[in-house]
Design brief:
Radius of gyration: 20 Å
Bound molecules: nickel (II) ion
Largest sheet: 6 strands, parallel
Distance between the termini: 12 Å
Oligomer: single chain
CATH superfamily of the domain at 78-273: Glycoside hydrolase/deacetylase
Number of helices: 9
Number of strands: 11
CATH topology of the domain at 78-273: TIM Barrel
Helix content: 25-40%
Shape: globular
Structural class: alpha/beta
Strand content: 15-25%
Length: 294
Amino acid sequence: MTLQESRPRRPCRSNRLWIRLILRSPPGGGGGAVAESVAQSQSGLARKPSASDKAPTASIPGAEVGEPPPKPQESETPLQVFRAGSPSSKQIALTFDDGPHGTITPRILDMLRERQVKATFFVLGDRVKHYEWVLRQIVAEGHEIGNHAYSHRILKFMSNDLIDREIAETQSAIRNAIGYETRLFRPPYGDFRPDTRAVFRKYNLEVILWSVDTLDWKLRNRDKIFNVAINDTHNGSIILCHDIHRATLEAVPDILGSLIAKGYEFVTISQLCGLPPMRLASVSAPPPPPPQTP
Ligand code: NI
């Protein structure tokens, strides 16, 4: 097997959702993590105006001038979307998408272990089933797993039923590999329709985006990837990389060394965003077999 991805895949890119920033104090500490509330989409699939968009006026029968707008229903509670942690802390999170890869991911794990760094891996369901042993190694070494959907298709062009299936099959693949599910989800390309939030809620998933895109999927150059990562990282940054590219593998040691020298502490997404640890599966699942040598 080569070190390169076996088939072309569009990388994650910044989402085009129109969002408004809110501050959230999530349970379990970590107050100050920056979360966003999805309000509307610019994708052409934007929601229709609803009665809650503006207060009733006297032109509406039965309404009084100045009457407060109706309270949103529970189902309209904004979805929390994490893009960064607290700007007042030197903690940052390194994340790897689109794996696991049979060769590159284990080598990245070696680099993380040597520097006692924890990271988070957003995996694809259709790859997990081929590399379950890699997932077990990721978890055994103290890193975190996130769901990155099954086939890396663009969610905003899919029905919620299909998205539900993508998420469910990936959760199942993760559970089969490590014995429990994840509560972290990163949509491919960072993009989704606001109405899909109901699917995320069904699986108790927190949506995790990023604040630093190393552009490793495009640059494919060790020095350029390093420069982007170092120049763009600040307190609370969530750094996006892909554990499927050779250039990323080559850049990781210098990225880790430089950011550690600057005093940053690498933590998992749950730690950075003040989220509880990944929940245990509620269904009976066989315990994962011991790690194997590839
Ligand atoms: Ni991706």
